[in-house]
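Inputs:
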Amino acid sequence: MTITVIFVYLALVLAVGTLSHKLFRGTGEDFFVASRSFGTFLLLMSLFGANMTAFAILGASGEAYHEGIGVFALMASSSALIIPTVFYFVGTRIWSLGKRHGYLSQIQYFRQRYDSDFLGLALFVVITALMIPYILVGFMGSGITLNQITNGQLPAWLGGLIVCAVTLTYVTYGGMRGTVWVNTFQVLVFMTFGLAAFIVIFKKLGGVENGMAMVAAKHPELLIRGDKIQPLQLLSYTCIPLSVGMFPHMFLHWLTAKRAATFRYTLVFYPLCIALVWIPSVLLGVLGSVDFPDLKGPAANSVLANMIALYAPGALAGFLAAGVLSAIMNSMDSQALAVGTMFTQDIVKHYGFHDRMTEKQQLLYGRLFVAAVIIITFVLSLVVNRSIFKISVWAFTGFAAMFPIVTAAIFWKRSTKYGALASVFSVVVLWIYFFIQAGDTPDYTVGGTGVMPVAVILAASAAAMIIVSLLTKPPKQEILDKFFAGDGFIASTKKLSESEKIVASRA
Amino acid sequence: MKNAFPRWTLYAGLIVLYLLHNDLWYWNDGTLVLGLPIGLLYHFGFCIAASLLLFLLVTYAWPKHLEVDSPEETRQ
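Outputs:
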């Protein structure tokens, strides 16, 4: 039954991805950013889906099983405020700049804003280095999860291969449009699954009140934060969601909006979507401690599967697999597309073709690179050590710590390329330092104070940007004219003509 | 017409809400309210408050100057 549901689900994913191709306009801009044509609903689903990994379903319930309800405050409600706020201040302005100057990747923007090929290259290396382990873990996670959910009927490598083949097909065939249509379908699947699992299980237990009363009787420590989470940890963890400001796939998704106004209701509904997905996961994880009291370490990630097997075997188990696959694939596809886009736009087009590529060439290279990223990461997922999981977790820290770069680029005229380079350098050095310091300690905080390393690296990155910018020569007036106007936020309100766009993109 | 919520009040609202995220007052309170632990219910309410504040932000402090007409619209 479970395998049947999985294959029906994957067939539907392929069908949705293929259908999207009917609207394909045959241009590079359509392949990479869907001709900047999406409305509020698709933008909300794609931004939310790209941020919700399998962690929101399996990891959240596993963490709640060990740490209790505090997980929601730590990882979900902070994101509910900070992520849409970043979209409001940064996402809308990036969209506007992207539309005016025809940007298709974040490196293009940083390279022109700071008038530095070297900075573009440095960011490309750092962003790709942080992104690849993240995609890789998606493949490993999908293989392992499929293996567990089907009780070993699907070997991990085969599960990963199936996910690889499906993702490869709809991303290379449909580009951004295919990816977003599939993402929308997937978000609806995992939201529906989460709510269905929540309702069915709690109904069998006589309601949420009864279920929580059972937890209060056996594990009251899971209903408070106590000493499982430190106050400084809660405060400093709020830096993590800033990572959305520097994720290359978020940047691409922002560019797909039809208008700046498209963001408006996306921002309003984003916090509600977070609550809708995370509350059921956290409550089911906490409840799992009553029926399955002996799950140690990562074994707790199977608590949701165990609860479903106990209270709602059959169809719901199959839907769990579909929900988890949805959550994994809708992050991985966007990430692979973003890395493929950077290779095409920022390496091949910029260095190989001196920014003069035909639409056909862009499409060909775009598809080749996206396919290469997916295939190579899948192959790597078969051979690399599982400690790679740790790097992917730390990827959030790296992206969040680079947030001052995008903030300064948009809001601070005086910021310079040397300031941005110093910021990148400080992130790389401190990230490596803390990564080594943390070793195998999962709950590592700086000196045991509760302060997350991200807060320290972010502060150092901001300080490096400010100090070095002030010590170096201000940017040229023509750069400021291009990117800033009277309000200090963004370039002139004059729209560039198509010929100006081409000139700007070659600059 | 005067803006009911000046931009600075909404930005201040974001900061106040951010500070309210650190609910030390419910840290060790496991009371169940409406069937949910109060610490979780508070953060569920926090998500709703964030949504409401964002609604006010996009209604009263929307950066209209960022809008760029698409070529098709410009031609029309």
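Remarks. The mean pLDDT of chain A is 87. Chain A touches chain B through 61 residues (CB under 8 Å).
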